[in-house]
Write a structure and sequence with these properties.
This protein is an all-beta fold. The chain has no helices and 11 strands. The strands form 2 sheets. Strands 2, 4, 5, 6, 9, 10 and 11 form a 7-stranded mixed beta sheet that branches. Strands 1-3-8-7 form a 4-stranded antiparallel beta sheet, with no helix packed on it. Strand 7 and strand 8 form a beta hairpin. It is globular, with a radius of gyration of 14 Å. The protein starts with a strand and ends with a strand.
């Protein structure tokens, strides 16, 4: 019953903006660390951004700092990634990840991903 469903991907020009979303169900969303990962063609999957389950503190990969913003709405069981000033190197499949904390430590869930293409 656990599901993470990404949406909002698409084609955008360099310098443009896009917001991807991840809708969660089947687990206690508010008790999980949420992250966005991405995987570009021929490259390893990399961590893009993380937001904690309690305080909402965020962390970002150096490559996206100042351009991307991760946020979560626990009432809607949804995590977002706002992407601004997009570059061609941001092109990738973006994946949502949920990692349990506290009593849910050891639980780890992944979505199917949403394609983001930055091209002129």
């Amino acid at each position: 019953q656990v599901q993470l469903v990404e949406s909002g991907g698409g084609l955008v020009q360099p310098g443009g903006s896009l917001r991807v979303s991840c809708a969660a169900s089947g687990f206690t969303f508010s008790r999980y660390l949420m992250s966005w990962y991405r995987q570009a063609p021929g490259k390893e999957r990399e961590l893009v951004a993380t937001i904690t389950s309690s305080s909402g503190r965020t962390n970002y990969a150096n490559s996206v700092k100042g351009r991307f913003t991760i946020s979560r709405d626990n009432a809607k069981n949804t995590v977002y990634l706002q992407m601004n000033s997009l570059k061609p190197e941001d092109t990738a499949v973006y994946y949502c990840n949920a990692e349990g904390v506290g009593l849910n430590l050891g639980h780890d869930y992944w979505g199917q991903g949403t394609q983001v293409t930055v091209s002129s």
